[in-house]
Amino acid sequence: MIPSIATVCVSGTLQEKLEAIAAAGFTAVEIFENDLIAFPGSPADVRRICADLGLTIVTCQPFRDFEGMPDARRARTFDRAERKFDLLQELGTDLLFVCSSVSPEALSGIDRLAADFAELGERAAKRGLRVGYEALAWGRHVYDYRDAWEIVRRANHPQVGIVLDSFHIMSRGLDLATIGTIPRDRIFMVQMADAPLLQMDHLSWSRHWRCLPGQGEFALPDFMKALVSTGFDSYLSLEIFNDRFRAGSARSVALDGHRSLLWLLDETARQVGKPMPGAPAMPPPAPVEAVEFIEFAVVESEKGGFERLLRALGFTRTGSHRSKDVDLWRQGDIRIILNSDEDGFAHSYQITHGSSVCAIALRVPDARAATQRAKALLDVPHAGAVGPGELDIPAVRGVGGSLVYFLDGGSALGRWSEVDFVPTGESEQAAGLIAVDHISQTMQYEEMLTWLLFYTSLFDAGKTPSQAVIDPGGVVQSQVVESGVGAAPGSGLRLVLNGSQSHRTMSARFVTDFFGSGVQHIALATKDIRATVARLAANGVAMLPIPENYYDDLEARADLDHAEIAALKALDILYDQDAHGTFRQAYTATLDGGFFFEIIQRDGYRGYGAANAGIRLTAQARLARPITVPGGLPHAQGSAT
Ligand SMILES: O=C(O)c1ccc(O)c(O)c1
Ligand SMILES: [Mg+2]
C-alpha cells in the first residue's frame, strides 16, 4: 500500500501544506478541493509544485451531489463533472472522487444511481480517467459502503470503483465482512482516519474530531485486516478533519501522519502474520518494564536546594558520576539523577527550561530493538557525548525536546549505575517511597495527540479516553498512557498527558513559564502513605493543603470510618476508590517553575484520582506563585500575590 495524505489534514496555505507533506516523507497527496480553490495560481502551477516536491496527486476531491439528480438537473450535473474532469487533467491526476449526495433533490433507487455511474464511467473512459464513489456517513440515500459497492457493482464499468473511508464505515459500526468480498481492482483508494468514540451527529464528528490512526478508538486493525484480505495495494490516504491539526504545526502533523501509517501497517502485518508491501520491517512493540531513572537538569546555584528537598523526601545520594557533575539519588526502586554538568544536553535543556526533568530512562526487554523501532517510526534519535569507559545509552527525543533513554537488563546497559557511578557509601534514610507510580507531562493542547501517538506507536501500550478536568482557570484535557503495568508497584510505565486550551489553567501557566512542554509532576508510590507523609512533614516538606470541605464530603460519600478520615485530613491526603481497590494521594507544594511531587498509596485501584483532580488544581491555584524558602524547599503558607 502506498502512504498518502490529504491536504486538509494540515494547517497553512496550499504551498505550505505541500512542503510539510513532502518533508514528512510522503510521495503521494490528495488535494482537498477548498485548498485548490483558495490557491492563487492555476491547477498547472499546483501540478508543478507537487512534481518539484516529488508528490503524485492521487485525486482532487470531493465532487459533490452527483448521483440521483432528477431529469431537469441531470444534464447540468454531468456538465459539472466534465469541468471537474478538465481540472483533474490540468492537475495531472486521473481519479474523480465522488462522495455520496446530500442534496435534498437527489432521488434514490439503486439502479438509477448505478446508471448515473455507468454513464459517468463512460465519459471518464473517453479521457482515460476513473471515477471513485465514497459513501458519506450522512449521505442522503447512500451512507453505507455496502450500498455504494452495490451501486458500483451494478454500474459494471471498469472505470468506476469504490473509495473506502474508514471514518464513514467505523463511525456507523458497519460490518466489515463485505470489504473482503470486493475485488481489489474495484477499490480505487482507501482513506484512513481514526476518531474518539463520541455521541454526536456523524457530520460534526467527522469534520472536527477525526484523528490519525492510533490516536482514537476505532478498531482500525480490523478494518485493515478486511482490506488486506482483498489484496488491495494502492493508496492508503489519511483524510483527517481535526480542529487541533488545523491550529497545529503542519510539519509536525504531517510527520505524525506518516508515523501513524507506518504504525498501522506494522500492526496490521503483525495481526495477519505477513509483511505489508511498502511497510518497513521493524522490531515488535514491547512493553515497558519500569522507569529506570528520572534525570533532572539542575543549575549549580539551585542544586543545594534541590538536594535538600530530595533528602527531606527520603532520598540518599548513593552514587557520584565518574567524570561529570552528576549524582545518583535513590530510595527504594526510585532512581533520580541530578545533572549539573556544564556541558552536554542537560545543561542546554536547563538553560531553555530552567531546572527540571530533562530525561526519563525506560527499562525495556531489548534497548537496541526499541531504538530500531523508534527510528523506523521516524522518531528522532539522540546521541550524547560519552566519556571513556562510559555507557552510550540509546535515546530518542521526547516531549518538549527532552530525552527518552532505553535501557535493558540483558546488555551492558543494565549495569549503567555501576559503570558510570562511584558509590558514595552514604547510608539510606528512606521515607517509605518505593517506586515511580506515574509521570505527568504537561504540553500544548495541540501537541497532545502527537505524544499520545509517540508512546503508543513505540511501545506495547494502551490508553484511556481523554478526560476533562476542571481547573479554576478553565478545562484541562488529561489522557493516560500505560505500558507493561502490573500489580507490583513501579511495574511498567504510567504517563498522564495534560493540555489545556485556556491560558489561565495551571497547565497552561506551566507551559508558558517552562518555555514549552515538560514533566510537571512525578508520582511516587508508598505502601503506607500516612507514615510517609508524616515523615515528609517532619522533614520539613510543605504539603499542599486540602480544604476541610473535602473531608466533610468524603465522610458523606466514601466507605471510610471517622478516624481514618481524620487521619487523612490531618495529613492533607486525598482518597478515591474504584471497582478494583482504594487510592490515597497527597501532593507536595509546588516548586518555582510549577513542578511538584505526588505521593501515592495504591491498593488495587487502577485510576489516577481523577475525582480529586479539580480539588488539587483549585488548591494549587490558591497557592500559585509559590514562595521558595531559603534553601529551596517548597513553602505552602499563603500566597505571594
Ligand atoms: O466532510 C465532507 O464533506 C467530506 C468530504 C470528502 C470526504 O472524502 C469525506 O470523507 C468527507
Ligand atoms: Mg473521505
Automatic annotation (TrEMBL):
Biological processes annotated in GO: 3,4-dihydroxybenzoate biosynthetic process
Name assigned to this protein: 3-dehydroshikimate dehydratase
Enzyme Commission number: 4.2.1.118
Keywords: Isomerase, Lyase, Metal-binding, Pyruvate
Organism: Bosea caraganae
GO molecular function: 3-dehydroshikimate dehydratase activity; isomerase activity; metal ion binding
Gene3D superfamilies, per the entry: 2,3-Dihydroxybiphenyl 1,2-Dioxygenase, domain 1, Divalent-metal-dependent TIM barrel enzymes
SUPFAM superfamilies: Glyoxalase/Bleomycin resistance protein/Dihydroxybiphenyl dioxygenase, Xylose isomerase-like
Family the entry assigns: Belongs to the bacterial two-domain DSD family.
Residues given in the record as Mg(2+) binding sites: H438, H521, E598
InterPro entries in the record: 4OHPhenylPyrv_dOase_N, DSD, Glyas_Bleomycin-R_OHBP_Dase, Glyas_Fos-R_dOase_dom, IolE/XylAMocC-like, VOC_core, Xyl_isomerase-like_sf, Xyl_isomerase-like_TIM-brl
Endpoints of the signal sequence: none
Residues reported in the UniProt entry to bind a divalent metal cation: E134, D165, Q191, E239
PROSITE patterns: VOC (PS51819)
Catalytic activity, as annotated: 3-dehydroshikimate = 3,4-dihydroxybenzoate + H2O
Pathway: Aromatic compound metabolism; 3,4-dihydroxybenzoate biosynthesis
Cofactors (names): a divalent metal cation
Primary role: Catalyzes the conversion of 3-dehydroshikimate to protocatechuate (3,4-dihydroxybenzoate), a common intermediate of quinate and shikimate degradation pathways.
Limits of the VOC domain: 290-409, 435-602
Domain of life: Bacteria
PANTHER family documented for this protein: HYDROXYPYRUVATE ISOMERASE, XYLOSE ISOMERASE-LIKE TIM BARREL DOMAIN-CONTAINING PROTEIN
